[in-house]
Amino acid sequence: MQYAEVAVSVPVRLNQTFHYRVPEALKGELKVFSRVEVPFSGRTVQGFVIGFSQPPDLQKIKDIKRVIEKEPFLNEDLYVTARWMVRRYLCSLGDVLQCMAGSPVGSTRSSQEKGLAVVENHLDLTGLVRAPKQKLALEVALASPGLRKTELAEKAGVSLSVINTLLAKGLLKEVDAGSGTENYPSLEELPTLTAEQRLAVSKLQQALREAKPSAWLLHGVTGSGKTEVYLRAIEETLKMNRQAIVLVPEISLTPQMVERFRARFGSRVALLHSALSQGERYAEKARIQSGQATVVLGARSAIFAPVPNLGLIIIDEEHEHSYKQEENPKYHAREVALQRAAQSKSVVILGSATPAIESYCRARPGGPYQLITLTSRVDQRELPKVHIVDLRKELAAGNTSIFSSALQAALARRLANHEKSILFLNRRGLATVVVCRQCGQVMKCPRCEISLTLHSDGWLKCHYCGYGARAPGVCPHCAGKTIRSFGVGTQRVEEEMKKLFPGCRVLRMDADTTTRKGSHQKLLDEFMHGEAQVLIGTQMIAKGLDIPQVTLVGVISADITLHMPDFRAAERTFQLLTQVAGRAGRGEKTGEVIIQTYDPGHFSIITAQRHDYLGFYHKEMAVRRALQYPPFSHLIRILFTGLNEGDVISAAQWWQERLYSAREELVDQSMEILGPAPAGIPRIKDRYRWQLILKGFVSREVRKVAAAVLEQAGTRFKQVSVSIDVDPMSL
Predict the structure, then answer these.
(1) Does the annotation flag 504 for ligand binding?
(2) Angstrom distances, CA of residue 647 to CA of 264, 456, 571, 690
(3) CB neighbourhood size of 290 (10 A)
(4) For position 560, what pLDDT does the model report?
C-alpha cells in the first residue's frame, strides 16, 4: 500500500501536512508535486503531494479522491522557496504551493494555439477592408506578428469574432507564436549607450559571469535608459544558456516595455499575467519549463515561473507597492527574488528612479546591495522644470477653480502649440465626499466605514465593496435639502477641463474607464496617435509611459497621499510626484511640471521639485529613525475580521495577552505590542476589523513571537479570520 504526504490549501498550522492512502487506480498518475483532491474535515479540498511515506497512524487514513494535475509546474527549487516562505511570512505550506502553482488548468486545448500574422500578399492594407475594427486588427497584426488570437484582440481592442472573420477571409494566417521577431536587431540597430549605461552594463555582465548570487540597485532618473541596461544584461544571461525573469508592476500598464522585449528577443519571451486564459497560461509555463522561452515577463506572481536554469531576475520600479501581495501568503516579490537568486546563484537587478527607502538603505556602503546610478537622461535631454503652486494663495486671490492660474496658462500654451499634456490626480470619481450641510451627515457605504464617492452618472459608489446607490435629493438622516459634494476626482477634472477649453480632446484613464479587456492599450494608443491632446488619470498613468510629445504634466493635488495616516505617506508622495513628473519632456522639447498643493513647504514636495532623491532619503530617514519605523525596526500587522464586532474584539484581546506572554518568554522586552485597536477602515463588506501591531528591532524575534501565538491559536476562533502581514506596506 502506498501513502502520500499532502500539503492542503486550507488554514492549518505552519508546517502541518497530512497523509492519505493512494488508491490502486491512481498509483501510475501520482508524482511529487501533483495537485490532488482530498477529503478534509467533512469537505473536499485541494492539496499538493510533497512526498511518499507511511503515516504513524493507519487507523484514520483516508484515500486521495482524484488527481487534478499531474504536472502543476512546481519543482524542487520552488519547493525550497516555499519552505522559506512559510518561515518568513508565517503562512501554511499548502497556501504557498497553491499561490506558486496558480489555478489548476482544466483543459489544455489552447496550449498549442499558434500566433497570427498578415498574409504576405495583403501587406498593403490600403483599401483592403472597410470595417474599421478589422482594419485596426490587421494594422496591429502587421506591427506585432506572432500574437495569439486573444493577445491580438486585446491589443487591437476588438472582439475575437473580428479576428476569426479575418482568418476566414484569408487575410490572417497562423504562424508559430512570437514568430517574425525571433532575431536580435543587428548591432547597428541597437541604441548607443551613454557612458553611465556602459559602466552599468559592464558591472552587471561581470556579475553574471561570476555565477554568484548578488543584488544590484539600479538607481536611474526617469528617462535615463534603465530598460536598455536590462536588455543588455538579459543578452549576457542568454549567452550563458541561462534564463531571466523580469517583473513589472502591472503588465497591462507597460505595453511599450513588452514591445521592446518582444522586438529584441521575439518568441523567446513568455508573458505571464492575469488576463491569460487557462490554456494560454499552461502553454506559456510549458514553454518556460522546457527552456523554449528564456525570458519571462510578468507581474508579481511571475517570480514563481518554473525556469529550469535561472540566471537573472529584474524587478522594474522596485519601489511599487503592488509587488507585495495583500492576500495569503502575503509575500513581497523582491524578497522572494532574493531567495530564489541565493538558491540558483543568480543576479538580481532592482531598478527605480525612486527606490524604496529600505532598498536604498541596503545599497549604502557595507550593505547587501551594490549601487549603480544613472544620473542623466539619454540623448542629453533635460529633466523637466518643476513649479510648485500654493493653492492657499490661489484661493486668497479669488481663484476657486481646481486649476491654478499657472496650470491654466500652461495648458493653453500646449494646446496652441499642438503638444500633449497629462493631468494627474490619484482619486477617481466626481467628488469624494457627499454631506448634508444641515446635520453634517456624510453619505457612507452601509457595508463599509468609508464615505461614498459621487460619480458623473449621479451614483454614489463604494470603491471597496462596489456598493452603489442614487445620490439622494434629501438627507436620509434629517430630510434636509442642502446636500453638497466636496473633494475632486478624475471625472470632475475631465468636466472642468472641457468647460475651460471647449473643443479640447480629452481622455481619462482610471479604474472606471479601463474595465474592459484591452482598454488600457486602446486609450494609450489613442493618446499616442493624436486622438486626444490631454490625458487625465490616476497613478496608472505614472508608470511606464514614454510619449515624446508630452511636454506638460499637471498634478492637481499633491496632498491626497501626503496626509494619509501611514508612516510611508511622505515616501509614497515623493515617489508618485517624481514618477508622474518623469512622463514630461521625454522628446526633444524640455518638459514642464506644475504641482498644486496646500502644503508647499513639505520636504517630499520640495525634493520632488528638485529631482533630489538623496535629499528626500536623508530627511525621511531622520523621521523614521526618530519614530523607530522601518528600516530601523520590523513590523508585523495582525488583522482580525468578523461579522460580530464582539467576537473580533475578544479574539484580538486573547492574542494580545498571549503575545505579551510569548514576548516575556522568548525575546527582548523592548519589542512593542500596539493595540488592539480598530483598523484604519474599521468595517469593510460588513466585516469588522481590528488590529495589533508588533514592533521590534530583530525580524527573526518579531516573527518568533507571532509564530508562537499562531501555534497556540490553531482553529480556536472559527467566526473570526486572523491575517498576519509580516513587514506590511501599509498600516
Answers:
(1) no
(2) 57, 40, 36, 11
(3) 10
(4) 80
* C-alpha cell, 607: 525634493
Which cell is 66 given? 482524484
Tens of pLDDT along 117-135?
777 555 555 556 778 888 8
DSSP-assigned states of every residue in 10-43: SS--TT--EEEEE-GGGTTT--TT-EEEEEETTE
Query: Under a CB-based contact definition with an 8 Å cutoff, are residues 165 and 134 in contact?
Result: yes
The C-alpha atoms of residue 159 and residue 593 are separated, in whole angstroms, by 38
The type of residue at 238 is L
Half-sphere exposure of 725 (CA within 13 A, CB side): 16
| Whole-number Å distance between alpha carbons of 177 and 279 | 14
What pairs with residue 639 in β-bridges? Answer: 691, 723
pLDDT in tens, 369-385: 999 999 988 877 888 89
Under a CB-based contact definition with an 8 Å cutoff, are residues 81 and 309 in contact? no
> What domains appear along the chain, each with residue ranges and CATH number?
2-101 (3.40.1440.60), 110-175 (1.10.10.10), 191-224+241-258+293-378 (3.40.50.300), 385-432+487-624 (3.40.50.300), 634-726 (3.30.70.600)
- Positive or negative, the CA dihedral 148, 152, 158, 164 is negative
Q: Nearest-CA neighbor of 702 among 663, 731, 676?
A: 663
Are 669 and 663 in contact by the 8 Å Cβ rule? The answer is yes
Asked if residue 361 belongs to a known ligand binding site, the reply is no
Assign 3-class secondary structure to 584-597. Answer: CCCCCCCCEEEEEE
Q: Would you call 321 exposed, middle or buried from its count of C-beta atoms within 10 A (0-12, 13-18, 19+)? A: middle
Q: Which three cell numbers stand for residue 590?
A: 524640455
Task: Give the pairing of strands 269-272 and 687-696.
Answer: unpaired
- The structure's pTM equals 0.83
Best CA proximity match to 589, nearest among 414, 412, 374, 451: 414
To the question of whether residue 445 is assigned a binding role by annotation, the answer is: yes
What is the DSSP annotation of 525-557?
A: HHHHTTS-SEEEESGGGGSS---TTEEEEEES-
**DSSP letter at 329?**
S
99 is in an annotated binding site: no
Residue 245's beta-bridge partner residues? 296, 313
**Nine cell digits for residue 235:** 543578452
pLDDT value at residue 234: 96
- Contact of 491 with 511, CB cutoff 8 Å: no
What are the mean pLDDT values of the chain's consecutive 10-residue runs (731 residues total)?
86 81 85 90 89 78 87 88 94 91 60 64 59 81 72 79 82 61 49 92 95 95 90 95 93 71 88 76 85 92 94 95 91 96 96 95 93 88 89 89 92 91 80 70 78 76 79 83 73 88 87 71 78 85 75 88 83 90 80 91 93 95 93 93 93 92 81 88 88 90 90 82 90 79
3-state helix, strand, coil in the chain (%, to 5): 35, 25, 40
Grid cell in block for residue 110: 489552447
H helices, E strands: number in the chain: 21, 30
* Residue 267 to residue 115: CA distance in whole angstroms: 10
Quote the DSSP letter at residue 64.
-
Longest Cα–Cα distance of the chain, Å, equals: 86
